[in-house]
Amino acid sequence: MFNNRQGKVRIKNVILIGIAAICLIVGVILLLIDPIKNMRRQKVTDDMMESIVEESQATFVVKSSGNEVNGEDVEYYYGEEEYGSSPADYDTIVAQLPEEVVLTALGTISIPSVDIEIPLWDSATLVSLRYGAGRLEGTCEPGQEGNMTVLGHRMRAEGKLFHSLGEVKIGDKIEISCIDGNHYTYIVDKIYDSVNPGDLDQYIDIDDGTGKQITLVTCTPLGVATHRLLVVGHIQE
Fold first, then answer.
1. Which of 61, 88, 133, 206 is the most buried (most CB within 10 A)?
2. The total number of structural domains that make up the chain
3. Helix (H/G/I), strand (E/B), else coil: 132
4. Count of alpha carbons within 13 Å of 164, Cβ hemisphere only?
């Protein structure tokens, strides 16, 4: 009787240890999913950046799935899918994506004061914003009169995409280096710390401001993304 009871206790302990081990393994896997995904996406972004800078490569073909940004379903402003039309929800956009997407680079965007240097795409779509910043369709081209609106994700990882945009100060430089060799420098002269997403249309219209303007848009607060941070600059003539 005593040995039988001991045997049952041992079996129970083995089962509990097994369950604990499984939970531990699952927990470790869940903890590693985002870092591994971020590393893979960053590697692709770095390779694109190198090709843009060193080879003036303008087009890239990427899969529409596999390198999603954590939280993009709530942070993404829906870019050109929403600009000037009815909003499209995240699930609808994802469902309509082709298997592969062609990204077209305008060049690069950099803010030396906060160590931002990433690809600048000629579109602000769900896929393009995973690998850099994107010009919102309907806003002007770099260096033109009017307002060029550029969207980018506020990544939680330091040094990634627009993570450090909140550290930008009045007087800092926003530099655009285009594929065609042209270079434009905008000087930051206005910062909006907390804009309601529903009010963005008041800030991103092509006729906003005067002269040659750029408006950078990302999410805030960091990791919460209930509002938008806007950094505005102008080319000094």
1. 133
2. 1
3. coil
4. 15
Give me the CATH number covering residue 57: 2.40.260.10
**What is the C-alpha to C-alpha distance for residues 86 and 93, in angstroms, rounded to an integer?**
13
For 112, other C-beta atoms within 10 Å of its C-beta total: 11
205 Cβ contact partners less than 8 Å away, ≥ 6 residues apart: 147
Query: With a threshold of 0.90, does the pTM exceed it?
Result: no
Per residue in 12-52, pLDDT tens? 666 666 666 665 554 544 344 566 677 788 888 999 999 99
Strands, E, within the chain: which ranges? 59-63, 100-111, 116-121, 133-135, 146-151, 173-178, 183-195, 212-220, 227-235
Domain that holds residue 60: 2-235
